C-alpha cells in the first residue's frame, strides 16, 4: 500500500510537470491591420539576403563555465538554390571543418572533434537558420509586446521559427520545440544595409553554448561561388 | 558543438609558429650541414608577417597580419594584429594563447600543456638544424638560388591534414626566409611572408611575459 502511495505521488508529480510543460506557450503575436500584412511579411524577409553572398566572421564560442575559443568562419550561400558552403578554420588558417548543404549535408573535411556524429548536421542547421529564410508557409504574423514585427513559420520536426525584426532594424530568430521550449535564439545587431555587424546565437537545452559572429567581410558572390570545384595547385612546391 | 581543438589541430597551429621560428634560423644554405652551422648563430629574431589563406571558397585570399618574436632557447611571441587580435606566448615550458573577444583579450581554451610539449620537442630539434631527424616530417633540401626546404609528413594522420610544407629562403640575405607555405590539399594552402626581419636585435623580455 505504501509503495502504491509513493507511486501515486510520483505519477501526480509527473502529471503536474507534463501539465505545466504543456502550458508553456509561444510568445504572443498581436495581429496587425489586414492591409498591413503584406508589409509585415516583407519586413520579416529583411534578415535574409536575396542574392548569393560570402561572409567572413570571427566566431567566439562560449561554453558553460566561461571557457571560450575563437575560430574564423567563411560562409557562402545561395538563397535561390538554398545551398550553403561553410568552412571553419583556426586563426592560423588551418581548416577544421568544411561542409556543403544542398537538401542534405556533405562533409568535405572534418578534423576531430568536428567529425563527431551529428556535429555537421547541427552545425549546418545553425548556419541555415542564420542565413536562409525559413522554408515553411507563414503560420502567423503581427507584432510582439515591444511592437517589433514578428512572423512565425513551421521548422523541422514540428518546431516553430519566429523571425522578429525590431524598429532599429536589428533582428532576432527564435526556434521552439513542439512543446514550445526555446531551442535557439539568434540576435543580430549593428545592421547596415541588411548585413549585421554582430550575430549572437545561443543554444539551449541539454548542451548550452553560444556563438558570437563578428563580421570581418561581406561581399556578393556569384551563384557558382559555393560550388565545390577542382582546386588550384600552388606553384613552386616541387 | 564543441569547438575545442584536439591534439592534431593544436599541433598544426603550433607547428606554424615553430616553422616560422625555426625557418629564420636557416641561413643561405646548400647542405644540411650549412643549416646546422647557421642555426648556431641566431639568438633573436623579430619580423612582421602576412598570412594569406587561399581556399576554394574564397575568390581572393584572406589576409591576416601580425608580428613575430623569437629568443633562444625557446621564447616565442606570435601576435596577430588583424583581422582578429590574438597573442600566442611561449616561454620557459609554458604556452598560452589570448584572443580578443567580447570580454577583452582572454586566454583561449584551445591552449594545453600537451601542445607545449610537442612545441618544445620540435624546437629543440630544429634549433639544432635537425630537420632530417624529425619524427613527423621527411625533409628535402633544394639548394641553389632561392633555396627551399620541402617537408612531407611521415604519419598518415598528419598527412591527412597537411600535404606538404615549403620553406623558401631568401636567395641573397643570409639568415632570412622569404616565405613558408603550408599546403593542406589542392586549392587550400596558407602562405606566410615575412618583412622587416631583424636578426639578433634586442628584444624586451616583457614581450614573452605580458600580452599587452
What does it look like?
The complex is a heterodimer of chains A (238) and B (212). By secondary structure, chain A is of the alpha+beta class. Chain A has a single domain (28-220), classed as Clam (outer membrane lipoprotein receptor (LolB), chain A), CATH 2.50.20. Chain A is built from three helices and twelve strands, in the order H-H-E-E-E-E-E-H-E-E-E-E-E-E-E. Chain A has helices at 2-23, 37-44, 119-131, and strands at residues 53-62, 68-78, 83-89, 95-102, 104-110, 140-143, 149-154, 160-165, 171-176, 182-192, 195-203, 209-220. A twelve-stranded antiparallel sheet of chain A has the order 5-4-3-2-1-12-11-10-9-8-7-6, with helices on one face. The longest helix of chain A is centred in the N-terminal third of the chain and has 22 residues, at 2-23. In chain B, strands 6-5-4-3-2-1-11-10-9-8-7 form an eleven-stranded antiparallel sheet. Chain B has a single domain, classed as outer membrane lipoprotein receptor (LolB), chain A (Clam). In chain B, helix 1 runs parallel beside helix 3 (113-127). The two termini of chain B are 31 Å apart. Chain B has helices at 7-23, 32-39, 113-127, 156-159, and strands at residues 44-54, 62-71, 75-82, 86-91, 94-101, 104-107, 137-142, 148-153, 164-169, 177-185, 188-199. Mean pLDDT of chain B is 77; it is low at 1-6 and 111-117. Chain B has 212 residues and is α+β, with helices and mostly antiparallel strands. The longest helix of chain B has 17 residues, at 7-23. In chain B, a hairpin with a 7-residue loop joins strand 1 (44-54) and strand 2. At the A-B interface, strand 1, strand 2, strand 3, strand 4 and helix 3 of A face helix 1, strand 1, strand 5, strand 9 and strand 10 of B.
